[in-house]
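Side project, low priority. Logging it here so it doesn't get lost.
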Amino acid sequence: MSLWRMILMAVNLVGVRFGGAAMGLAAQILLARLLPQTEVGIVLMGLSTAAIVSLLMTAGYPSLTMTILPRYYALGRARLAAAFHRALWHDSLVVTSLLALVGLAIYFWAPLPPELRTALVFGCLMAPASSLIRITSSIANSKRRFQLSYVPDFIFRPGLLLVFLSTMWVLGVEPGLLTVIAVIIAITFAVASGQAVILGRDIFPKTLKAGLHDLAPALRGRAASMIIVAAVAMSFADIVTLIGGLFLAAEDVAELGIAIRLAALAGFVTQATQNFVLPDLSEAIVKGNAKLARSLILRINLIAIIAIAGCVLGAAVFGPLVLSVFGADYTAAHWPLVLFMLSQLFRAAGGMNQHLLSIDGYQSRSAWACIVSLGVLVAGAVLLTPALGVMGMALAVLAADIVWAAVLGFQAEKYAGYRGDIFAAFSFRKAAGE
C-alpha cells in the first residue's frame, strides 16, 4: 500500500468517523439540553457499561480477528478461517450466558444506588447488540471491507439517535430518561442486525461443534488476554467514566464523560489508521517482507502523531468554545480535556507495539502492560480525584497512558525483538517473519 493510498484511506475512514462524531456530538448536545445534567451522567455511565460488558461478551476475539484472519486469508487457509469463526461464536455465546447469570445476581442481590442501578440495567440490555457490532466490524476489517467495518456503528447509530433527539427538540418534547434509553437500545439492535446481514452468512458457522480443525483451545487463552488489552486500547474512555462514577457526583461524571469522549474522537485517528493497515502488515510479516513492514510502521506512526498533535493544540485553543455548546457548566472541563488529548498523543507515539505483540503471539504479555496501566489509573483516581475532581481523573489518565505506552515498548523489544513505536520506526531491525 503506497503512502498516498494510505493517506487517502486514512482521510476517508477518519472522515467517516468524524462525520459520525459530528452527529454524535450534536446528539450529546441535544441530550444535554433535553435532560438534566444528572441524567446525562446516568446515560453516559450506561453507555460505558454497555461498552465494557459487550467487550467481555466477545471473549476477546475481535482483536485476534484483525490479526489472525488476514493471515489465514493471505495463506489461502479457508478451513482454518472457518474454524476460527466456530471458535469465536462458540466462546462468545458461552461467555454471554455466564455474564447473564452474573448480571441477574447483581441486579437482585447487590445494594446499588438507584442512579447506578439504572445505568447498569441500561448498559446490560444494550450490550448484546454492541457485542455483535464489535464482532462483525472486526470481521469486515479483516476482509478489508473498511466502510462496512465503520459506517454502521459510526454513522447510522449516532445518526438515528440524532434524528430522534432533533425531532424531540423541534416538537418541544422532553423525552425523559427512560425513553432515551429505550430508543438507544432499539437503534443499537437495528444497526447490529443490519451490519450482520450485509456482511453475509459465511461469518456464521453452520455448527458450533469442532470440525477437523478445532482452534478454540489454542485461541481461547490468547483471546481472553486480549479483553483487557482491548479495554485499555479501545474502551479506555468508558473505564474512566465508570471509575469516575465511584468518586464523583453524577453531574461531574457528565463533565468527565463529555471531555473524555471528545478526546476519544481524536484517539480514533490512531485506532483507525492502525486497524486498516493491520491486514497488510500481518501479510508482510507472514511473507517475510521486512522492507514493507518497516515502511508501513513508519508511515502509520507519522500520520497518527501529526493528527493527534493538531488535536492537542485545538483543545488548548478552542476547548472552552466547544464545551460551552453543551452548557456553561461543561466549560469547567477545559483543562481536563487538554490533558485527555495529551494522553492520546502518548498513545499515538506508542505506535504499533500492541499489534506487533499480537501478531507474534504475545497477547498475554501485552495484557500485563494494560494491567499495570489500569493500576496506575485506579491509584491516581483514589489519590487525586477527591481533592481535584475531574482534573484529578485527567491527571490519572495521563499517567496511565504514559506508563502503558512505555511498558508496551519495553515488551515489544523484549519479546518480539522489535518495536513499532515512533522512536523505533526508523530502525525496525528484525526482518519480518524471522
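Brief comment: Residues 428-434 have pLDDT under 50 and may be disordered.
Revisit when time allows.
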